[in-house]
């Protein structure tokens, strides 16, 4: 991956206009799609397969008057008046008649209807008018909402002075979140951090511009997708937060590596390629972990949450793609102007200007940077540091025990919102349960007296603890479905209401036997409770998924057991501490006023699972960028391979310190940027998004600065060299994933090797399976030349042929084929170098014809001497034609001559075949000197 990204980065650097125009075209297409296809967001929550959802679907078919969304307004009489007086009754009755004619209104319930109970409070000081609409809230047109508001405003003018009227209900309960100027503060802070990091105003703005382009594309794509899927209003803002944060950070990682390399004298183009191959590889890996975690939100089995995860993952994917393509393209525009003015340059300028003031601390040698002093203190007292962090975060996590989960309702809106005022007024006059009635429904087609049956069921329900009253118990017009409307004693987001729903459902069998009704508990409050319960049940499997995923991925990346374990434990600490911060603010009320929390109480129910998924990916970002640098320094330290454990321990400790110092600046900047972007959504953010934003901001700060930059170095210091040990059996089965750019660095070091134009060059090549097969193989094939490897068992020769063709990875040594270093460039070699295995001569002829198509510079033939008779003549003819075609291309200056690498048990016959084709002087290489264990050759899987 690193070599592929390096080539991509180099191409983007060379062709910046093409890359920029391509992304602008994508933005234009996405924006056009959003303008044409946008159907608006949908704030209706559903959860297929649950009892509450099944009940709603049944009601929509047989009792639509109570199945859709509702609105209501409350009228409170002036002091000393009664709501039953004529001066209140007549205007309210007129308003009911007028509202009955609105489009989409199925029914309007008058509080004075003799069939309805509970719409006038016990003191007769307040009354409620309810409206039932056809469909969900998003199905109600803006014109209908405006007409409803106008009618209520007209009613206010007709009521006696001193009365109070507020409009609310489910139709107005959910606010549509939007972006405010407060969110821009996070971008400004991010810009300041980037200026400090790069020490250049121009360079600092580039990550912001690329991130905003990515956000624009992903946001437009999300709105275009509303034509094909239901998207909640919270989804675009979550994608905005994530896309902006990771987009800035990913560009920062690549540009910071590039800037350091250019300052060290590396050519800008080469530096851009290296930066994308090294830091870009880590960016891709980190982005993939975020994608997997977000897509894993589908564990909950809730459609709107799955859609939210997919939309956010698209934003992250776009950010990754822009980071590895547009970032090097932007660097191509800048060329060498990314250096900025680091401190050492300013110091040199001062000296050149003749300043005779000694540098601060010059008498004591070079001044240590803050990161060097920090990691020195952490690793000097690692046990004490670890205990302090763990205990401290444990204390911070205590409020998490108080977390209650619920879906948002009008009660969490801003205090000046009319729907919130209606919610509070209804709670004051009628009790909190009136804001979240429950509905029991069932089929009653077998009943001969449906009215009495429903009254009896209503009486049984009224006896349940937690039920304040039964407002309605009636069959529908066709007497095939009945409903019981239950008013709980507690608010819809109160845990006691959830307990009541479970209690009502526990009587299912009893009521089925007594009344013959298959009762379902439904209603929007029950749906919200079911969603919260299912989300709570999904937390454990989702947690196991992300923790298990982190252990597997980090084991593959770092070739270690302890590094993944410490990373996973650190992630758990970050999560519970972030939950604790959210609980302290939204449950305990700490700093609630300062953060403009509208109401202290339950947290939006999908906050924990989103926080776990997002923070997992971001925590892995920091883990990879910090610890990969430590691993790189340990691997490159000669003492790390010493047989003396104490020497290896010293190397490990030095690697922790040097790796931390080398990456701390970038990780600090990344953490600050993400914290700023997330925390900016807290003060004025949407009430649903506010706890998520606060949790992410707290989680990022805790994970980046306390866990990754404090606890992890301390634990690595305690572990020492053991941190990098792994059982040999596990090492063998793990796939190789180069996210640290080792292949890119290897190509850099071997850039001038072999020093000639050989088509194939191998030095000290080692091929093995369970035991070494070939060791120390050295060979060269010039352009247009041919080489025949012989002298050993056919399986050994095949192993070498597969290695030259890029199909088998060498265990050690150097191998370059057609100018491409293996194994890093193996995909290119496999696509451009034909490999013919002559087991079946007829089939091999077909493979040879395919291998010689196009303009190859090398063809590999294993067992060329197996061609006999007519097959031999055909093979020779094909090789002759290919050699002649290659010679023509050489004369035209478009290609190099065709070279052949062949293996054979009969070298004389093989040489004859090649001589008859076009290679009379084919070189012979006897492999016997390179054999290590000729009596124990392991079968090689072709």
Automatic annotation (TrEMBL):
Designated name of the protein: MMPL family transporter
PANTHER family per the UniProt record, alphabetical: MEMBRANE PROTEIN MJ1562-RELATED (PTHR33406), MEMBRANE PROTEIN YDFJ (PTHR33406:SF13)
Domain SSD, chain residue ranges per copy: 203-333
Region annotated Disordered, chain positions: 349-372
InterPro entries, per database record: Acrflvin-R, MMPL_dom, Mycobact_MmpL, SSD
Gene3D superfamilies reported for this sequence: Multidrug efflux transporter AcrB transmembrane domain (1.20.1640.10)
Transmembrane segments: 20-37, 171-196, 208-231, 237-256, 276-302, 308-334, 383-407, 538-558, 570-591, 603-622, 664-682, 694-719
Annotated source species: Microbacterium profundi
This protein's UniProt keywords: Cell membrane, Membrane, Transmembrane, Transmembrane helix
Annotated membrane topology: Multi-pass membrane protein
Cell location: Cell membrane
């Amino acid at each position: 991956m690193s070599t592929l990204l390096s080539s991509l980065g180099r191409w983007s650097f060379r062709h910046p206009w093409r890359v920029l125009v391509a992304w602008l075209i994508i933005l234009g297409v996405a924006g056009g799609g959003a303008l044409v296809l946008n159907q608006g967001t949908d704030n209706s929550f559903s959860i297929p397969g649950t009892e509450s959802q099944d009940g709603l679907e049944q009601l929509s078919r047989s009792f639509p008057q109570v199945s859709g969304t509702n609105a209501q307004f409350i009228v409170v009489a002036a002091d000393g008046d009664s709501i039953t007086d004529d001066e209140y009754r007549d205007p309210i009755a007129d308003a009911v008649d007028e509202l009955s004619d609105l489009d989409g209104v199925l029914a309007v319930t008058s509080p004075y209807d003799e069939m309805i109970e509970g719409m006038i409070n016990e003191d007769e000081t307040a009354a409620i008018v309810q409206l039932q609409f056809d469909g969900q809230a998003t199905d109600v047109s803006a014109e209908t909402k405006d007409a409803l508001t106008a009618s209520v405003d007209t009613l206010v003018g007709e009521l006696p002075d001193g009365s109070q009227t507020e409009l609310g209900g489910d139709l107005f309960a959910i606010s549509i979140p939007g972006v405010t100027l407060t969110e821009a503060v996070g971008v400004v802070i991010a810009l300041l951090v980037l200026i400090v990091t790069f020490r250049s105003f121009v360079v600092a703005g580039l990550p912001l511009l690329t991130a905003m382009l990515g956000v624009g594309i992903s946001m437009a794509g999300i709105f275009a997708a509303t034509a094909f899927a239901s998207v909640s209003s919270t989804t675009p803002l979550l994608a905005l937060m994530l896309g902006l944060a990771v987009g800035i950070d990913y560009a920062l990682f690549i540009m910071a590596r590039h800037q350091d390399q250019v300052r060290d004298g590396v050519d800008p183009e080469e530096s851009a390629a290296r930066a994308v191959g090294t830091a870009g590889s880590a960016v891709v890996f980190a982005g993939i972990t975020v994608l997997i975690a977000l897509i894993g939100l589908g564990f909950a089995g809730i459609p709107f949450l799955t859609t939210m995860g997919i939309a956010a993952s698209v934003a992250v994917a776009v950010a990754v793609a822009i980071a590895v393509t547009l970032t090097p393209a932007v660097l191509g525009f800048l060329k060498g102007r990314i250096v900025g003015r680091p401190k050492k340059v300013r110091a040199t300028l001062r000296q050149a200007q003749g300043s005779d003031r000694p540098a601060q601390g010059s008498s004591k040698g070079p001044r240590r940077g803050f990161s060097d002093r920090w990691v020195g203190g952490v690793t000097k007292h690692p046990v004490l540091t670890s205990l302090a962090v763990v205990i401290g975060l444990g204390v911070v996590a205590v409020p998490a025990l108080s977390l209650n989960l619920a879906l948002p309702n009008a009660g969490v809106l801003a205090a000046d919102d009319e729907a919130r005022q209606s919610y509070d007024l209804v709670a004051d006059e009628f009790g909190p349960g009136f804001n979240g009635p429950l509905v029991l429904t069932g089929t009653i087609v077998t009943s001969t007296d449906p009215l009495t049956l429903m009254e009896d069921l209503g009486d049984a329900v009224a006896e349940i603890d937690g039920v304040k009253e039964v407002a309605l118990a009636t069959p529908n017009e066709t007497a095939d479905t009945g409903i019981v409307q239950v008013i709980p004693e507690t608010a819809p987001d109160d845990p006691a209401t959830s307990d009541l729903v479970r209690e009502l459902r526990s009587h299912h069998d009893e009521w089925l036997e007594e009344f013959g009704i298959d009762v379902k508990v439904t209603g929007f409050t029950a749906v919200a409770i079911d969603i919260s319960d299912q989300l709570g049940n999904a937390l454990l499997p989702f947690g196991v998924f992300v923790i298990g995923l982190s252990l597997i991925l980090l084991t593959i990346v770092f070739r270690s057991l302890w590094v993944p374990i410490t990373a996973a434990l650190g992630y758990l600490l970050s999560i519970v501490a972030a939950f604790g911060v959210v609980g302290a603010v939204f449950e305990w009320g700490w700093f609630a006023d300062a953060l403009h929390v509208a109401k202290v109480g339950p947290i939006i129910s999908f906050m924990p699972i989103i926080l776990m998924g997002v923070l997992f990916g971001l925590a892995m970002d920091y883990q990879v960028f910090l610890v990969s640098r430590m691993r790189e320094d340990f691997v490159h330290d000669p003492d790390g391979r010493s047989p003396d454990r104490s020497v290896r321990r010293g190397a490990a400790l030095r690697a922790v310190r040097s790796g931390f110092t080398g990456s701390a600046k970038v990780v600090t900047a990344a953490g600050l940027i993400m914290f700023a972007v997330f925390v900016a959504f807290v003060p004025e953010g949407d009430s649903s998004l506010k706890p998520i934003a606060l949790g992410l901001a707290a989680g990022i700060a805790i994970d980046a600065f306390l866990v990754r930059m404090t606890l992890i170095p301390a634990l690595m210091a305690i572990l020492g060299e053991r941190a990098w040990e792994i059982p040999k059996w596990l090492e063998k089965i793990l796939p190789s994933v180069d996210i640290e750019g080792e292949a890119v660095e290897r190509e850099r070091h071997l850039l001038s090797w072999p020093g000639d134009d050989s088509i194939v060059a191998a030095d000290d090549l080692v091929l093995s399976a369970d035991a070494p097969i070939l060791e120390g193989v050295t060979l060269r094939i010039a352009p247009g030349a041919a080489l025949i490897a012989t002298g050993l068992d056919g399986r050994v020769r095949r192993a070498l042929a597969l290695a030259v063709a890029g199909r088998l990875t060498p265990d050690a040594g150097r191998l370059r084929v057609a100018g491409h270093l293996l194994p890093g460039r193996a995909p290119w070699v496999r696509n451009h170098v034909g490999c013919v295995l002559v087991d079946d001569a007829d089939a091999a002829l077909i493979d040879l014809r395919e291998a010689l198509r196009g303009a190859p510079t090398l063809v590999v033939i294993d067992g060329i001497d197996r061609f006999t008779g007519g097959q031999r003549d055909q093979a020779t003819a094909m090789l002759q034609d290919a050699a002649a075609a290659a010679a023509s291309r050489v004369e035209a200056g478009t290609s190099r001559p065709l070279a052949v690498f062949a293996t054979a048990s009969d070298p004389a016959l093989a040489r004859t075949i090649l001589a008859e084709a076009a290679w009379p002087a084919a070189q012979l290489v006897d492999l016997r000197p390179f054999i290590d264990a000729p009596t124990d050759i392991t079968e090689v899987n072709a």
